[in-house]
Write a structure and sequence with these properties.
Elements lengths: L4 H13 L7 H21 L15 H5 L7 H13 L16 H4 L2 H15 L13 H20 L10 H10 L12 E4 L6 H9 L5 E6 L2 H13 L6 E4 L20 E6 L33 H10 L1 E12 L8 H11 L3 E6 L12 E7 L8 E6 L5 E3 L2 E3 L2 H13 L7 E5 H7 L21 H6 L2 E2 H5 L2 H6 L3 H5 E5 L2 E4 L6 H6 L2 H25 L8 H15 L8 H26 L7 E7 L9 E8 L4 H8 L1 H28 L7 H37 L2 H42 L4 H21 L5
Parallel strand pairs: 1-2, 1-4, 2-3, 4-5, 6-8
Antiparallel strand pairs: 5-7, 6-7, 8-11, 9-10, 12-14, 13-14, 15-16
């Protein structure tokens, strides 16, 4: 039976709770991720011959389970992990976290209890990967990414640099031309500052063929995270080497180690503005800094990383690197290096990103895209300013699915969009801007100022500039402008409907109604195409391919629907996919549509008492078909009657409580009081009946799951669950169209509703009234 990602996530995060307090996230992540690795490889490879990971005697998760409650559990876990590391060449990779470290884990019985609880959590059914082998690779990789993101969030600014947000990693992977990797012989990818390896994994995922991935990481514990990450993503052959990339590079073309190894693709998110990067580098330059008329500043390693990457690219190599915006415009030695890089034609594009995306810093960054293949004939650099496209996520900013899609499609197709993207000639960069690449010099992405019209304030009327500025709406809703406005004088309009009726005028306009039909038609066209896949999910279905296919179809259908941004439609679908639909598709893929016949318990952790920390069942829910949906479609009348009865009881109870509060001031035993007591008893009995009816309805709904046919399940899942939610999201975008035009019309109407002379007269009248009142009170001013 397949397991939901959400269930895996909650269990893994519960294991983290056991270590909080004794150490911060930058430390306890090593323990949790190590146990996840041991559990996964034990479940997947134990007992298999010629497995990618050998599980030796005394080196499996079962051996760790045997240590539960033992006084030497910490030492024992270290030995088990060491036994697993030895035959797999994973020493100093998976054995960096010491489970017998009393300073971090605790001493005596505290250590025994803590480690026993953690091991017990990893024994939960949702973490039984023996049953989940068919889909374990993707789902475990996603779980690892989930943990890494949360650890980075908890680790704080100074310790979260090991993780590049998955959204940014996907952008880099999709813009370096990896889709053409199959045309190369034995394609390779490299990250010289690989951290936990997420960037390389995203590149490998995007490649249409198997690609060799290699990374270097200075911190040995972080390198261990990367290696485990590779295994959990089904990339156990990924190569990770440790040491300082500048002074001890680990990849060379030959055994003589005189020439750095060259790669087809290079990606990196190196530490920003690294100080003292050049310590010990003399005699170990390997030609990385030759031909640029300057060395990168000793106190800032940004260009050192960039030049190392350029040197590591094959003659037709591609690369994408994340660096702070300063590299685009800083002067002195960096200006000289930047000039030479531009003159050599290595820069294909620059993408400005939002601030506060990364865990190690809050400053805005950019992606520099390099391409050696056509560098000699390059005449342009393609620029994108995506700095305003993000959503707040806790104390960080995050790229949404729409933002990723827009960046990638705009860059790969070189789509020019005012205020967002532009093809910039090298002549403009060199001659007009002296090799300064600061994006605002080339793209004006600022919001246009809303100008005030002095003449309108003096003489009245709404400026034609404001009314005609709504041209995109007038083009779509022919005749609506004339329903709302009439000429007042040359260059000015007047509103010919009441302000309060503007929305109704827009909403009831026939052109607006036709626009609604256009939106609905686009959705229904997409639904028809998507249903061919959604009603025929099977074990061969690839969820990642499925969502790409239906997402591209929805973009295509809404391409020509004006006023609604197709990227917002894309976001509606992808957001729902990530939170709900992906889990459902995964379960159907491995368990069939019969998963719709299943229910699952809702559990809560006991927070107090002798059973504190244990789980108890507090209810149930359908595995993929919501209980509320079953009730609304099959037991609507029963539910309605219960709701109505409960509403009557609540209202009567409220009136009784009010009466009791008023009557408490009167000590006499009145008839009304006795009547109220009787009524209260009657309501209590009715409430008991309602409770019994609710329990009966709950049991009937539960029994209904087993009766559902496959066709019913498909209809419930696809039409009533998925399509209902997706359509509601798109309908909200449609409603926003009327809200935007209405709000703007009311805004400009109110702005010029009263002329300045009229306002002055009103002020004068009030001043006179105030003066008269003061005089009557014998005050003088």
């Amino acid at each position: 039976m397949a397991i939901k990602k959400s269930e895996i996530y909650s269990s893994l995060w519960a294991s983290c709770d056991e270590l909080r307090g004794g150490m911060d996230a930058s430390q306890y992540k090593d323990y949790i991720l190590t146990l996840l690795f041991v559990k996964y490889v034990s479940d997947k490879f134990k007992g298999e011959k010629y497995a990618e990971i050998e599980i030796p005697e005394g080196g499996s998760f079962d051996d760790i389970v045997a240590l539960k409650g033992s006084k030497d559990i910490g030492e024992g876990i270290d030995k088990v992990i060491g036994a697993l590391a030895e035959p797999n060449k994973l020493k100093n990779v998976i054995d960096n976290a010491r489970f017998n470290d009393e300073a971090k884990i605790g001493k005596g019985q505290e250590k025994v209890d803590k480690l026993t609880k953690i091991v017990s959590i990893f024994q939960r059914p949702e973490l039984d990967f023996k049953k989940n082998r068919a889909g374990g690779d993707d789902i475990l990789g996603d779980a690892y990414e989930y943990l890494m993101r949360n650890f980075a969030t908890e680790s704080g600014k100074s310790k979260g640099q090991f993780y590049t947000p998955a959204e940014v990693s996907r952008v880099l992977a999709k813009i370096i031309g990896i889709e053409k990797a199959s045309s190369k012989k034995d394609p390779t990818a490299y990250d010289p500052a690989c951290g936990s390896g997420s960037l390389l994994i995203k590149v490998a995922d995007e490649a249409p063929c198997r690609i060799a991935i290699s990374g270097q990481e200075k911190e040995i514990t972080t390198a261990g995270l990367a290696k485990m990450n590779f295994v959990l993503h089904n990339r156990p052959d990924g190569d990770i080497r440790t040491d300082n990339t500048f002074t001890v590079p680990r990849y060379f073309e030959t055994t003589e180690k005189t020439e750095l190894k060259l790669f087809d693709y290079v990606v990196a998110n190196p530490p920003f503005s690294l100080k003292n990067w050049s310590n010990g580098i003399v005699g170990k330059e390997y030609g990385r800094f030759d031909g640029y008329d300057a060395m990168p500043p000793e106190k800032n390693g940004d260009f050192a990383w960039l030049l190392h990457i350029i040197k590591s690219m094959k003659k037709d190599g591609k690369a994408a690197v994340i660096l702070p915006h300063g590299v685009l415009f800083r002067g002195n030695a960096e200006a000289a290096i930047r000039k030479n890089i531009i003159d050599k034609g290595y820069i294909k594009g620059i993408i400005g990103l939002p601030a506060n995306l990364f865990y190690g810093t809050g400053i805005p960054a950019c992606i520099i895209v390099l391409d050696k293949e056509k560098h000699k004939g390059r005449k342009n650099i393609f620029m994108i300013d995506a700095s305003r496209d993000f959503v707040k996520d806790g104390n960080k900013n995050r790229l949404r699915e729409r933002d990723i899609y827009k960046i990638v499609t705009t860059f790969n197709k070189e789509i020019e969009e005012t205020g967002y993207s532009r093809v910039v000639t090298l002549d403009e960069i060199k001659s007009k801007n002296e090799y300064n690449l600061n994006i605002p010099r080339y793209i004006d992405s600022g919001v246009k100022e809303d100008l005030q019209d002095i003449a309108a304030h003096l003489r009245g009327g709404i400026p034609a500039l404001d009314v005609d500025g709504l041209e995109k709406y007038w083009n779509e809703f022919a005749g609506l402008k004339e329903k709302l406005f009439a000429p007042k004088r040359k260059g000015y309009y007047k509103l010919i409907v009441e302000k309060d009726t503007v929305r109704d005028t827009v909403y009831t306009d026939s052109a607006f109604e036709n626009y609604g039909k256009k939106v609905e038609k686009a959705y229904l066209n997409w639904q028809k195409a998507a249903d061919k896949l959604l009603f025929n999910l099977n074990k061969e279905t690839n969820p990642k391919t499925l969502i790409v296919t239906i997402a591209e179809k929805i973009i295509a259908e809404f391409e020509n629907v004006k006023l609604i941004d197709k990227h917002d439609v894309y976001e509606v679908l992808l957001s729902y996919w990530q939170t709900v639909m992906a889990d459902d598709v995964f379960l159907v893929k491995y368990d069939g549509y019969e998963a719709g016949n299943e229910i699952e318990p809702i559990k809560e952790v006991v927070k107090a008492g002798k059973n504190k920390g244990t789980e108890k069942i507090v209810g149930w829910e359908g595995k993929i078909i919501p209980k509320a949906l079953i009730i609304s479609l099959f037991f609507a009348e029963e539910k309605f009657n219960i709701v109505q009865a409960q509403r009557f009881i609540d209202e009567a109870q409220s009136r009784l409580d009010e009466f009791a509060e008023q009557d408490s001031e009167d000590e006499e035993d009145t008839v009304q009081t006795r009547h109220a007591t009787s009524l209260r008893k009657e309501l209590s009995e009715k409430a008991k009946i309602v409770k019994e009816l609710s329990q009966q309805l709950d049991e009937r709904a539960k029994a209904k799951y087993a009766e559902l046919t496959i066709d019913q399940i498909k209809d419930l899942l696809v039409n009533h669950k998925w399509h209902t939610q997706i359509y509601e999201g798109i309908y909200a975008l449609y409603k926003t169209v009327s809200q935007r035009i209405t709000e703007r019309i009311v805004e400009i109407a109110e702005r010029y509703e009263n002329t300045l002379p009229e306002l002055e007269n009103v002020v004068a009248e009030y001043e006179t009234k105030v003066k008269n009142h003061l005089e009557k009170m014998r005050f003088t001013i």
